[in-house]
Amino acid sequence: MTRNNSLGSLHLEGFDVTQTGYWTLQNDGHSVVLQVGSGMSVSGGGLPDMYHTIQLHFHWGSPATNGSEHTVDGHRYPMEMHIVNMKSIHPNLTAALDDPTGLAVLGFFIDVVYGDNVHFGHISQKLSSVAYKGQTAKVKPFPLMSLLPKHNMSQYYRYYGSLTTPPCSQVVVWTLYEVPIYISWSQLAQFTSQIFSTEEDAEQVTPLHNNFRHIHPTFSRVVSASKDARLLRGTASCFLRSAVTVYQLQIILLGSLISGL
């Protein structure tokens, strides 16, 4: 990882206002996707162009495993959220997939605390309506910035890579934020226990678990730290704030309860 002092905060146009109309939440069998319509864009922060925000989606593990797509010094967070943005010169996603920098994805780790995240509730409260593949629900728009670690938006990592789902095209400018979003255990459980990759009338319903791509080699790509991000050295000892996995913490909590009986 190298420091790039020219990488400052991105300009997130429209993220702090409430858009009109309705957004659509969908279970596509691979993830839960929130289509946000028009009205938001991303630029600056070393991006080669302006990008229009089109959707966000999530990756998670299972009740016993963490499921972020990226790792930090080998540590995997419980979840990860991706905000997908398409370069403004392209009329559609098909055209963007022919451009090596056609998409800009903002990645956010999601970690767990005991209290509900009220802003995340705009999404989690609708999950029961999209439990099965193909189901959709309307979501009243809310300021997307309310979900994000707004006081730490200058702390991120940058590399040029690919989509993490087929066709895995090498067309993504990745911006991965250092500071996670925090949600509650119950909000996490809604993803790991109540979302299915099959349709409601399937003979056997299958929970949607571990919908993340495994870690791949960097193939000599440069990973840059923004001017305010912590510079990682590539050893596990550097990651002092590493959180335990969901399963490990459940065991710790169970042991504490038993010892208190």
From TrEMBL:
Alphabetized SUPFAM superfamilies for the sequence: Carbonic anhydrase
Pfam families: Carb_anhydrase
GO cellular component, one term: plasma membrane
SMART domains: Carb_anhydrase
Domain of life: Eukaryota
This protein's UniProt keywords: Glycoprotein, Lyase, Metal-binding, Zinc
Alpha-carbonic anhydrase domain residues: 1-227
Cofactor(s) named in the record: Zn(2+)
Class in the EC hierarchy, top level: lyase
Catalytic activities: hydrogencarbonate + H(+) = CO2 + H2O
Transmembrane segments annotated in the record for this chain: none
Job of this protein: Reversible hydration of carbon dioxide.
Family statement drawn from the similarity comment of this UniProt entry: Belongs to the alpha-carbonic anhydrase family.
Full protein name: Carbonic anhydrase
